Amino acid sequence: MIDETLPETLPPIRHWPAVDLTGTDFDPVLAELMREGPVTRIQLPNGEGGAWLVTRYDDVRMVTNDPRFSREAVIGSQVTRLAPHFIPDRGAVGFLDPPDHTRLRRSVASAFTAKGVERIRDQARAMLDRLVDELLRNGPPADLTAAVLSPFPIAVICELTGVPAADRHGMHIWTQLILSSAHGKEVSENAKREMSAYFSDLVELREGSTGEDVASLLGAAVGRDEITLEEAVGLAVLLQIGGEAVTNNSGQLFYLLLTRPDLVARLRSDPMIRPKAIDELLRYIPHRNAVGLSRIALEDVEIRGVRIRAGDAVYVSYLAANRDPEVFPEPETIDFSRSPNPHVAFGFGPHYCPGGQLARLESELLVDALLDRVPGLKLAVPPRQVPFRKGALIRGPEALPVTW
Asked: What pTM was computed for the model?
């Protein structure tokens, strides 16, 4: 029940320019917003109006798992947002609410379970070994992003989605254009249209298929009239883009490790701690700029004594939630022994990232391969000279110069 005595005076709106950040620096504006209160008001560089920002761990989980906050209601609304080219597509899984959202994700769920991901572990390890073989054969110095961190997740997500090897370079180009705001709205939207057309053809070819890859699962679901072709294409595009985001995340992970030799020494001396260490790094690393997708309140809701009105836009910050000191003692410290570690790096609720298991697998394989096979791996330039991507929604180094 809403307390009718709550004050109606809205807090001031904080403009959040979302400038390009380098390294693993935490966004200073977000840090200030976290200090100002659990529920604040923000305005991002694009869109219209203001929005609420929720930063405490428990509140973030509540909003993302509460049907009173709708993704679908964002359709047709020019909500303040980070990306200039970001216009929600009707029927896209990222903007569906249950039960339609549940129905659509169910069609590919088997590919992203622990069993489904384990199915490609050996293939993924073999692909990674070949990339590291080539890295060692070519010798130092090298760009770790170009040599390993970019081609590896591209190959893995394409293997999972069923994109043939010959088409993977083009898929990568489309993804980079979609994920960047640096080229302008028209270029990004055109790349998304071309990727959508590609998946439309691929899914139609797989109708009736019994394969285990995403395109085959979607084709089979379309053939059974469980989902439409348009829904299948939207989901395939989302999964492909999300799978490539591991490139930037991995770049940040290795940038952090290569600037913290104490962490690398621990991972090398005690390989058994690596799975827990990767979870802690996922909690700590600020993997994106600003915030992701908004929701719309369908009715008046009170959070921490603040009234959010029906129709208001609401954002959550998973980055802030992962630094909540009430849940993560000494949140600014990287603690490989942290337990429990209920981080929300992959989101929470119905829109929890389906690729979480896959991202963990790739991170584990990368850490094992690069730390064990390239024991002298280190940055080839001072940390501040590592170039980071500009205008990217997902943060990460454009290149990672290394030697050994």
From this structure: 0.91
